[in-house]
Write a structure and sequence with these properties.
heterotrimer; A alpha+beta (483); B alpha/beta (417); C alpha+beta (113); A: alpha+beta; D-Amino Acid Oxidase, Chain A, domain 2; Arc Repressor Mutant, subunit A; five-stranded antiparallel beta sheet; 29% helix; C: alpha+beta; CPE0013-like fold; 2 domains; five-stranded mixed beta sheet; three-stranded antiparallel beta sheet; 2 helices
């Protein structure tokens, strides 16, 4: 069985590639190392759709950021992904910052960022009254926004799978051989042969490249730590609030989320590829920095800390295009910020490469674009009633903090890429995302997963492989020795 | 719109007692809305004994205590609607509810009792650093897995926080075959009852580390190690005092928070000290006809006190339905030195024959006095041999003491002379 | 000398009990002396747990209907682990009479239909 294209990695970049390719009559495979898609950087980042004034003009990052930003509103509408074009402000808090704002503004103009404006202190505070009163002005970019990053990934990957793309989970690529047709990718789930490879492996992209003898770049995993605050803090600001960028990155932001919470972070520290731990120093830094922008953020309302690992690299720009070591092997690597924003444009870019490389692309006649899912709490009273009449499980609220019903959880468990873990369900429907963090609904979600997927409850994991929750039954019931 | 005379939100110990008391006071159209599939609330998973010594004068387990109230309500026309979630509550006492059986339904209530209880503080609330591995549970979630579902959450356990749920879980996990390595408490004293220290920790030789906290959590997938450090008097970890425990489970018993999202939606005034509604002497909130009792009002130590408070709230709701709102000159009540909060936060001068004040102290006291002041004039003083933050205190001030007060504010203070 | 915390009231007096004479010091009331002596002579506890049930729930909560010797707790737990009951059950139903020879019965603490 020969694939036309194998996508290695199903974060938001891999999913975007698979989505773009799924329009065509191709055999597309997606190999994902983890037990769910969106399980790396995609599930732990700032969730920002950047306007595009940060990257240096002329870079791939600049071009794809602005392109991706322009695609995002329509894409999110089509795929039913929560998105809000809330705009962003970069604050000036010192005379040096004033100059930096001017520079960002000029970059934005060069990059083609629409509608940006430099605001006075008064204009800035009129927009965002909770900002530091000593703010000197701001760069306002109305095209910036916020998105649900993992739902964007699910939506694109699900649509690809519904249109014939084949997804293999827990299929980390362990070795790559050349074949007469192209490449043979070895995984614990079997050997996959393909004409073309798209390397979207995130923090592992350099290891994948090395498998074909390509040592042209190194990934430098960089950890960012975050606070996620209760909805009671969700309207502390209405826009994404940045400070002026430093060498380390875009700095600590304060932003609303599409779920109605407030997100604060990140710092930036070199780390091991899988290190998502929180550190006292990292959390203290984030807290102190954020209070400079928005002094009234109430950290007592924190409901969760987390850390994400960005796939930064030893290159200043995204690493894109065909490997010098092998024809037909393409990298989408070193996808640091603004990678989430750029993702939809990266998918289209990959299609162009493959066409240029000789892959015949004919569009499917029966292509089914678009996706819808029921969000019970957003329905009108009449719609709620009608839905419950059809399926009473929509009348049983499982997650009380986020008002998520059993019907929504069951529906998620029967999507093209069904979650098998408690956090997989959480990211799909929001159960356990709220202020009690699954304290009440966790056991019930576990029970529903087991029932719907025919699993033993003790086999249902919290998240990635190895994250067991239960070790056995009491009273001499079955005992599992995962520990 | 459906109508009900009295709607009680929550079918735990508070809601059940409020319903019973309102029924006994003559209300005949009472509806309890319970989000779980059975009434009884958290008592269903509190299978240990020690409940009911005050109210029933005997020692019961949680399910037995709840069962008694459920039985008593069986002899009334009080309706308990389970699997029902209240999505929204308005100031004019309309409840927007959803359930599999009745679908979406708006209910106009004559009076409402808020009895939603509380939830546990989580890892995020105290920002424990370290890995994002599995194996970290709030004690209550682990209790539900163990006692209701019959599953073990781990085999080698460290418990952070010495609140009663944490202590009770130390014993339960031990009895079911787990090894509990330590119970770690940030404060220099335990937040739990002495009987639980003795019967849940000492009986099984589980060490209690006071003035310690968890400073790191390690584990790539499942929890593998926690680091525990001693803290100084400002509760900051002291470098060099680290102890490492190899364990697969960390249980958190680090405090409870009243669940007042619905109260806030309705515009009920919330006391930042209790995180519960500001109430009058009869448990009425800032919205006339809306009452609050149990852990949604303030976190209690004993369920017997929840019952007593809820009985008063149910009776007050009945009085409101039968005679309208209480009137009278308002006197504010405030926590003074050594006192964390008071419930009620205000009272009507001539409303009752005595004023019962509930509160918690901020630290441990021996042989101290509870003093009640009218402005700067002391009007009453009560001796206590022992007071601790883990235990709810109360004093009752006879009406005759309240006759001549100047209008307050009345304050409660702790005096040690 | 054995050191104990008295649990008869919230004060929590730190008692010292002589292991031979059962004389108690550190108590501030007579109840403490009785508690301290009993804790050394014959400490007893109520055991609560759950048993497997066939019915509308996965587990049924149970307790010993009187305090049993502390030394017998784990023997009682072993017997509790072996029981499997069928609903319906009434609160107070005896599930294990004379558990582990202690004279205490293990009884249901919840009714199940």
């Amino acid at each position: 069985m020969l694939y036309d294209v194998l996508v290695v990695g199903c974060g938001v970049v891999g999913a975007a590639c698979a989505y773009s390719l799924s329009r065509y009559n191709l055999r597309v495979g997606i190999l994902e190392a983890s037990n769910d898609v969106a399980n790396g950087t995609t599930k732990a980042n700032s969730a920002i759709v950047h306007a595009g004034y940060d990257p240096l003009p002329g870079t791939k990052m600049a071009k794809l950021n602005v392109l991706g930003n322009a695609m995002m509103p329509e894409l999110c509408k089509r795929l039913d992904v929560p998105f809000s074009a809330c705009g962003s402000l970069v604050l000036s808090l010192s005379p040096e910052d004033d100059a930096e704002l001017r520079k960002l503004y000029d970059q934005g103009v060069a990059n083609g960022v629409p509608g940006q404006r430099l605001l006075s202190a008064e204009e800035t505070l009129a927009l965002e009254p909770n900002l530091n009163p000593e703010v000197r002005g701001a760069l306002y970019a109305p095209s910036a926004g916020i998105v649900n990053p993992w739902e964007l990934c699910y939506a694109m990957a699900e649509t690809a799978v519904r249109n014939g793309a084949e997804l293999f989970l827990q299929a980390p690529v362990t070795a790559i051989d050349r074949s007469e047709n192209g490449f043979r990718l070895n995984t614990p789930k079997g050997v996959f042969e393909t004409r073309f490879v798209l390397n979207c492996a995130g923090v592992a992209a350099d290891r994948i490249a090395a498998m074909i003898g390509d040592e042209s770049f190194r990934i430098r995993p960089t950890k960012g730590e975050y606070f996620l605050l209760d909805k009671s803090e969700g309207s502390r600001v209405g826009r994404v609030i940045f400070q002026c960028p430093t060498k380390a990155g875009k700095g600590v932001l304060v932003a609303p989320t599409v779920h109605g919470n407030l997100i604060v972070g990140p710092n930036a520290a070199p780390c091991a590829a899988e290190d998502t731990s929180n550190t006292p120093s990292g959390m203290a830094y984030v807290r102190t920095s954020a209070l400079r922008s928005v002094p009234s953020v109430n950290f007592r309302e924190n409901i969760r800390n987390f850390a994400g690992v960005r796939a930064n690299s030893d290159h200043a720009d995204f690493i894109l295009g065909e490997s010098t070591a092998a024809k037909g092997f393409f990298h989408l690597a070193g996808i640091r910020s603004p990678g989430l924003t750029a993702a939809p444009a990266l998918g289209e870019e990959a299609v162009r490469w493959l066409r240029a490389a000789g892959l015949a692309l004919t569009e499917k006649d029966d292509y089914q674009d678009g996706r819808r899912r029921i969000r019970f709490h957003e329905l009108s009273d009449e719609e709620k009633n009608e839905l419950i009449r059809q399926d009473p499980r929509y009348g049983r609220v499982i997650c009380r903090c986020e008002t998520v019903t059993e019907g929504e959880i069951v529906a998620a468990l029967h999507t093209p890429i069904p979650p098998t873990t408690v956090n997989g369900v959480k990211r799909r429907v929001g159960a356990g995302m709220g202020r009690c963090q699954g304290g009440f609904c966790g056991p019930r979600v576990q029970e529903i997963i087991a029932r719907e997927l025919g699993m033993d409850p003790t086999d249902v994991l919290m998240d990635w492989p190895g994250t067991w929750v239960l070790c056995g039954e009491t009273k001499g019931g079955a005992s599992h020795d995962e520990g | 719109m459906t109508k009900a005379e009295l709607v009680i939100i929550g079918g735990g110990p508070a809601g059940l007692a409020a319903a019973l008391s309102a029924w006994e006071s003559g209300v005949r159209d009472i509806l309890i809305l319970e989000r779980d599939h059975q009434a009884g609330g958290i008592l269903n998973q509190c299978i240990h004994n020690g409940f009911g010594l005050h109210y029933f004068k005997e020692e019961l387990t949680g399910p037995e205590y709840a069962g008694r109230f459920i039985e008593m309500l069986r002899d009334t026309d009080v309706r308990v609607r389970t699997d029902t979630m209240v999505l929204d509550l308005t100031a004019d006492r309309v409840l927007h509810t959803v359930s599999p059986e009745h679908g979406y339904e708006a209910i106009q209530a004559g009076a409402i009792v808020l009895a939603m209880g509380c939830r546990e503080r989580t890892r995020g609330a105290i920002s424990i650093p370290g890995a994002r591995c599995s194996g970290i549970f709030t004690a209550g979630a682990a209790q539900r897995f163990l006692n209701i579902e019959g599953y073990m959450v781990g085999k080698r356990v460290v418990i952070l926080g010495s609140g009663d749920i944490g202590l009770i879980m130390a014993r339960r996990m031990t009895l079911e075959g787990a090894k509990v390595l330590a119970c770690v408490e940030l404060m220099p004293y335990s937040g739990g009852l002495n009987r639980n220290i003795v019967q849940c920790l000492n009986d099984f030789d589980i060490p209690l580390y006071l003035s310690h906290t968890v400073t790191d959590v390690r584990g790539k997938d499942r929890l593998e190690q926690v680091t525990v450090s001693k803290v100084d008097e400002n509760r900051r970890p002291i470098p060099g005092t680290e102890m490492v425990f190899d364990c697969d489970t960390l249980l958190l018993s680090v405090g409870l928070l009243p669940e007042n999202e619905l109260s806030r939606q309705a515009g009920v005034e919330i006391d930042p000290h209790t995180n519960g509604p500001v109430v009058w002497e009869n448990c009425e909130t800032s919205i006339p006809g809306v009452f609050a009792c149990g852990n949604v009002l303030h976190v209690h130590d004993l369920v017997d006190y929840v019952t007593a408070e809820s009985m008063r709230a149910g009776k007050a709701a009945a009085e409101f339905l039968q005679g309208g709102e209480r009137t009278g000159e308002a006197v504010p009540l405030e926590p003074g030195s050594g006192v964390g909060y008071t419930v009620p936060q205000r009272f009507r001068r001539d409303a009752a024959d005595k004023l019962q004040i509930f509160f918690r102290v901020r630290r441990i006291y021996r042989d101290a006095f509870i003093a009640v002041y009218d402005g700067e004039r002391r009007i009453a003083r009560f001796k206590r041999e022992h007071m601790a933050p883990g235990e709810m205190e109360n004093v009752a001030i006879p009406a005759m003491f309240l006759k001549n007060i100047t209008g307050g504010p009345l304050s409660v203070r702790i005096e040690e002379d | 000398m054995k050191e104990l915390i008295c649990i008869t009231c919230p004060k929590g007096c730190h008692l010292k009990v002589d292991e031979e004479t059962f004389a108690v010091t550190g108590n501030s009331c007579p109840r403490g002396a009785v508690y301290g002596a009993n804790e050394l002579r014959n400490p007893v506890r109520v055991v609560t747990s759950t048993v497997v049930v066939d019915g509308p729930a996965r587990r049924l909560p149970v307790k010993t209907d009187r305090p049993i010797p502390k030394s017998k707790i784990f023997e009682v737990m072993d017997e509790i682990a072996k029981v499997r009951v069928k609903a319906p059950v009434r609160v107070g139903d005896v599930l294990i009479p004379n558990a582990a020879g202690t004279d205490g019965n293990v009884v249901a603490t919840k009714s199940l239909p």
